[in-house]
Design brief:
The protein is an alpha+beta fold. It contains 10 helices and 21 strands.
Amino acid sequence: MKRRNQILAGLLGAQIILIVLVFLPRVLPAQNQSGPLLGTLQASDIVKLTIRDKEGQTLKLAKQGTEWSLPEFENYPADGEKITPFLDKLIGVKTDVLATSTASSLKRLQVADDDFVRKIELQGADGNVHTLYLGTASGGGANHVRLAGQDNVYVARGINSFEAATAVASWIDTTYLSVSQNNLLSATIENAQGKFEFTNQGNTWTMKNLPGGQQLDQTKVPVMLARLGSLTMVRPLGKEAKPEYGLDKPSATVTVVVSETNSTRVYTLKVGAQDGEGNYAVISSDSTWYVRVASFNVEEFVNANAETFLVQPTPTPEGALPPTPEATPTIAATEALTLTTSITTTKSLTPTEVLSPTTSITATAVLTPTATPKPQTP
C-alpha cells in the first residue's frame, strides 16, 4: 500500500511539472512583453492613415510635412487636431489585458482578416505598414484589438470603432461659408421660379417688385439667409468644375452684400445638381473648392417663389364654417312663428280615432252560420 502511494505521488508530481512546463511559457512572455502593442512606433512617425469599415468604405489621410490632407480629394486640408489624438490612442494600446489567443475566436470578436469592424493601416516614414483590427466592444469604453500577423487579441481601453470613422466630414473642418448676419445690406435669390431682390434698411427688409396689396414677411428673408451664417459641407469635391456638378446652369444663385468696416463685401453662392444621396454641389465666391452640402442647407433657395416671402392669410380652421350675418335674425323669425305648433285642432279631431265601428265591424267575418250545413232529417 505504501509502495502504491509512492507511485501515485510520483505521478501527481510529474503531472504538476508537465502543467508548469506547458503553461508557464504562455504566461511569462505575456508578462514580459506587456507594453505598447505597436512597439516603439510614435504618432509623429506616421505619414499615412487608412481606415476601412465592414461595409467596404475607405478613408485615406496623408501627411505632407506637418499638415494632413485627403489625397483622394485633391489633397483637401484635413484637421490635424482631430487626427493626432486618434493616433495617440492607437499608439497607446497596451498588451496587458489579453482577451484570447485562439485563432478560432477572431471572427467572433470581429478582428479577423476578412471579418472586422475597422481595419486600420498606419504607415511610418520608413515605409513599414502596421495593421490593426478593431472589433467588438468589450464593455467599459474598451474594444477588442488585434495586430495583423498575430492571434493574440487584447482589450484596448479608451478607444472604440466609432472614432475610426470613414466619413470625410469626421476629419475636416466642415465649415464652408460663414457670412456675418449683423450687417446685411441686400440679398438676391435667383432660381427657376424667378429673381427676388431684397434690401435691408434699419433691420427692415423691402422687396423689389412686391405684388400689389401684398406685405413682405419680415422674418422670411433673414431666416433664409441665416443658412449662410455657417454653411457646412458633407465632403469636398475638388478645385475643378465637372459637368455632373450642374453649376453651368445653377439650380439657385444667392448673392449677399455685407457692410464691413470701410467697405462692402459681396458673397455669391451657386447651387448645382444633387447626387444620388440628395446632396447639392455648390461653389462659393469665397472659396476655390467645390463641395457637397446637405439638401436641407440650400433647398429653400432652390424652391423659393414670390409667395415664399409674403405674409400669408390666416387660414380658417378646418371644419369651421364662415359666419352668416343674416343667420341670427332669420333663426329668431322661425322661432317666433309658433302658430304651427299652436294649431292643435288636428290632434283634437279625435272622431276619426273613435269611430271604432269601422274597425269593429267584424260581423262579415264572424257570420259563419251561413257556412254551417243544416242537419238532414232522417
